[in-house]
Amino acid sequence: MKKLVVLRRSSQAFFLLLFIYILWSTTYPLEGLLPPEAFFKTNPSIMIFTSISERLLLPGLAFALGMLALTLVFGRFYCGWVCPLGTMIDISGSLRRKRDNLKRLPRLYLNIKYLFLFVILGFAAAGVQIAWILDPMGIMARFVSLNLIPTATLLVERSFIFLIRDLGLSGPVHDIYRALRGSLLGVKVHYFDSSLLIFLFFAAVCVSAFFISRIWCRTVCPLGALYSYFARFALMRREVEGCVDCLKCVSDCRMGAITDGRNYLKGECVLCMDCVYACSVKSTMFTFRRQGRRSQVTAHEKEKSGLSRRDFLFLIVSSIFITGAGWGKRTVKRKVIRPPGALEEDMFTSRCIRCGNCMKVCPTNGLQPVMLQSGLEGIWTPQLVPEVGYCEYYCNLCGTVCPTGAIPRLTVEEKTSRKLGVARVDRSTCIAWALNQKCLVCEEHCPVPEKAIKIQEINIGGEIVKRPVVVPELCVGCGICQTKCPVRPERAIKVRP
Fold first, then answer.
1. Cβ-proximal residues to 149 (8 Å cutoff; 6+ apart), any chain
2. Are the beta carbons of 217 and 140 closer than 8 angstroms?
3. End-to-end CA distance of the chain
4. Is pLDDT at 150 greater than 50 in this prediction?
5. Peptide bond into 489 cis (omega under 30)
6. 3-state SS string over 398-410?
7. Which are the contacts of 227, defined by CB distance < 8 A and separation ≥ 6?
């Protein structure tokens, strides 16, 4: 039995399911085995570059540095044993036929990921955090939170409805459904804007492995580039004695890290252990000890395994040109309604990693991903869309699950006093104002104890007409008035940021 491969696959399955479980259990009320931000705080790419861009030490940075320390011991193990996106890429790659001629890539292609890493570093130095774009954990989290969970929840719920209502199955089936409604199904989520684009981005990453094994990890992933650099100095290494040059390990290496039977690119190896069992004479092992002269990486391979001086200078110059537009932070006016307590707009878009935690946990489905409403720098950040759902007055979950503090942790008392925006009544369409008919839905739903929407009584032709009036000083912009307003297609009361 391929014990090491079985162990590696078990580790991948465990961390993938744990990742999905953590995000799935991030619901209202907030309960779960681990805090939803746990995975993100062990991500060096997110923690380090966000800390650099914001000029502060984020809570959890120590965990991220700990992962780099483990990489110095074991090598690039995270990519092969832990990474949820890497697991999905492996699953996709396992569906194709082996095409050995496509596995080896020129060194220039392997260095592309370092270019992305330098570009991200350059933007971070300029105060702009763009690590979220290509970060594997962010890509996976957005897919799970905004695609997988809503789709699975909807399918399961519709299936139970079909069994109970259409087939007439009740009793135990209905009991199971009620139990799942309080656990697995969680909050009923109907809709997330731009979820199709998020899915297509995720699918493109996974499907790429169907053509060339782990091409994303080898040529694009900036987190992989960071781990690859530190893995070059790892204590654990691949050793070979008695090689007969069958080259089976070369053809079976999913990362194209083995250059010949004896030598390999240490920074590209993800410790998948396939080469251990592919070896026809069982001469391959991973160890902390150096076995002999023939097993050593040659000077030529050492040069190939890392960045040459010429490549390093080229990447530095290229990243400077690419990041030139990012220098000089500017104050940005808020164009959308942000979650309660969100940082100033430029700071918020820089610190937000677009993980989707806040949108997933929102009990009303009101938090939606932004597309271009706040500019390119705001893509996939959260915004409150009162047309879809409102900000629950006594809910502070979005700040609780934010891994970087873009939405700060607030107590319920602090949250209720934070202003998201101000509601305004359109008197030309409001039923009470335009038609002089009775409608006080907005006032009735206003959660502010002092009532931010007051009733104004006017005598018209001897008849007292009640009309809603917003008190800006009291309004917190929660949006429930807009959500509940009966006027269609455009609500007669809207919240402005």
1. 23, 24, 186, 189, 360
2. no
3. 61
4. yes
5. yes
6. HHHHCCCCCCCCC
7. 44, 68, 71, 76, 78, 79
For residue 298, the model assigns a pLDDT of 41
Contact 370, 343 (CB under 8 A): no
Length of the chain: 497
Pick the closest to residue 417 from 361, 473, 344, 480 (CA basis). 473
Specify whether the backbone of 127 is left (phi greater than 0), alpha (psi in -120 to 50) or beta. left
Token output for 300 = 């030529």
Closest CA relative to residue 104, chosen from 227, 218, 224, 237: 218
CATH 3.90.320 fits 422-496, yes or no: no
Q: What average pLDDT does this structure show over 30-40?
A: 70
Query: How distant, in Å, are the alpha carbons of 409, 425, 454, 472, 487 from that of 434?
Result: 42, 11, 17, 21, 11
Closest CA to 76 of 220, 235, 201, 213: 235
Domain spans in the chain, listed from the N-terminal domain onward = 1-232+306-417, 422-496
Task: Let me know: does 229 contact 217? Beta carbons within 8 Å.
Answer: no
Question: H-helix or E-strand containing 241?
Answer: none
- Average pLDDT value for residue range 343-369: 91
- For 396-449, the pLDDT digits (tens) are 999 988 999 999 999 999 999 999 999 999 999 999 999 989 999 999 999 999
Structure tokens at 412: 């319920």
Give dist(CA 251, CA 268) in Å, integer.
15
* CA–CA separation, 357 and 402 (whole Å): 7
- In contact, 221 and 89? CB cutoff 8 Å: no
Residue 458 in tokens: 């006017």
**Range of weakest confidence among 125-129, 172-176, 378-382, 427-431:** 172-176
- Mean pLDDT score, 65-91: 95
Give CA 438 to chain center in angstroms.
46
Collapsed DSSP state (helix, strand, coil) of residue 238: strand
- Band (pLDDT 50/70/90 cuts) for residue 234 is very high
Q: Is 244 exposed, middle or buried (0-12, 13-18, 19+ CB in 10 A)?
A: exposed
